[in-house]
């Protein structure tokens, strides 16, 4: 596990180069091709992350495209620029799933149904 606050998660050399060229925080950041929770937890992470890992990061910097994203195994930085590549920052937050109460038909946290029964006002389910 790396000690830096900044990590790049990518398998694409052009994407890594683009991120470093457009966000100086990632200039010296280590690159991992496949992230673990320990790689991204409480860090600023650039690249593509599944949402369950993105939720662990402080911030996720994604490569996005104004046009159609380049296809193929190895696109170039020029291909990315032609497709209107830019960086966008996100914070991803896990939220508790909801379920519809069978009695009052309101959306309530699943944990209510599983643990206590529905606690919506006026519902005794
Ligand atoms: Zn209810």
Spatial order of strands in the largest sheet: 2-1-3-4-5
Helix content: 10-25%
Mean pLDDT score, rounded? 93
> What is the number of helical segments per DSSP (H or I, 4+ residues)?
5
Strand percentage lies at 15-25%
Radius of gyration: 20 Å
What is the makeup of the main sheet? 5 strands, mixed
Number of domains: 2
Spans where pLDDT lies below 50 across 5 or more residues: none
Shape: elongated
Following the backbone from N to C, one meets helices and strands in this order, namely EHEHEHEHEEEH
Write down how many β-strands occur, each being a DSSP E stretch of 2 or more residues: 7
Q: Give the helix/strand class.
A: alpha/beta
Bound molecules: zinc ion
Multimerization status: single chain
Write the layout of secondary structure elements.
Elements lengths: L5 E4 L3 H10 L8 E2 L4 H4 L3 E4 L3 H4 L4 E7 L11 H6 L2 E6 L7 E3 L6 E3 H7 L9
Parallel strand pairs: 1-2, 1-3, 3-4
Antiparallel strand pairs: 4-5, 6-7
Describe, in plain words, how this protein is organized in 3D.
- The chain is of the alpha/beta class and 125 residues long.
- It has two domains: 6-90, no CATH class; 95-125.
- Helix content is 25%, strand content 23%.
- The chain has five helices and seven strands.
- It has helices at 13-22, 37-40, 51-54, 77-82, 110-116, and strands at residues 6-9, 31-32, 44-47, 59-65, 85-90, 98-100, 107-109.
- The protein has a five-stranded mixed sheet. A two-stranded antiparallel ribbon has the order 6-7.
- It is elongated and about 60 Å long.
